[in-house]
């Protein structure tokens, strides 16, 4: 009986963890929508977009030269050229997931 209860508890815990992981999963489609809204005026966010700002790196360049973790950290910090606190942690993950779709 105790073994059945232990297995039931483990199964429930794994279900909760799986659900939490899904909630944290990044959505590159949402990231593309957010990038079009927040980032496109300065960054090149698509392959066919014309240059936006000479100072802002393109998304393809970022994908090849920065890690997911570095991008998430950067976007979470306030800095003068981008809106401070405008993005939630989930939105940051989504934008970074979209950026990483350009990685070859």
CATH class bucket: Mainly Alpha
CATH topology label: Cytochrome Bc1 Complex, Chain D, domain 2
Major sheet: size, sense and barrel closure?
A: none
**If you average the pLDDT, what whole number results?**
82
Number of domains: 1
Helix content: 55-70%
Dominant shape: globular
Strand content: under 5%
Category from helices, strands and their pairing: mainly alpha
Please give the alpha-carbon distance between the first and last residues. Answer: 53 Å
Tally of alpha and pi helices:
5
Supply the CATH architecture: Orthogonal Bundle
- Radius of gyration (CA) equals 19 Å
Explain what this protein looks like in three dimensions.
By secondary structure, the protein is mostly helical. The chain has one domain (26-102): Cytochrome c-like domain (Cytochrome Bc1 Complex, Chain D, domain 2), CATH 1.10.760. Helices cover 59% and strands 0% of the residues. The chain is built from five helices and no strands. The longest helix has 23 residues, at 2-24. It is globular and about 65 Å long. The model is unreliable at 5-10 and 16-20 (pLDDT under 50).
């Amino acid at each position: 009986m105790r073994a059945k209860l232990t297995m039931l508890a483990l199964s429930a815990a794994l279900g909760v963890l799986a659900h939490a992981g899904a909630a944290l999963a990044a959505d590159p489609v949402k990231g593309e929508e957010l990038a079009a809204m927040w980032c496109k005026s300065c960054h090149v966010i698509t392959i066919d977009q014309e240059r936006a700002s000479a100072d802002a790196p393109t998304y393809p360049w970022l994908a090849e030269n920065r890690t997911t973790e570095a991008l998430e950290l950067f976007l979470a910090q306030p800095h003068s050229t981008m809106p401070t606190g405008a993005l939630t942690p989930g939105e940051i993950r989504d934008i970074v997931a979209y950026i990483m779709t350009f990685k070859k």
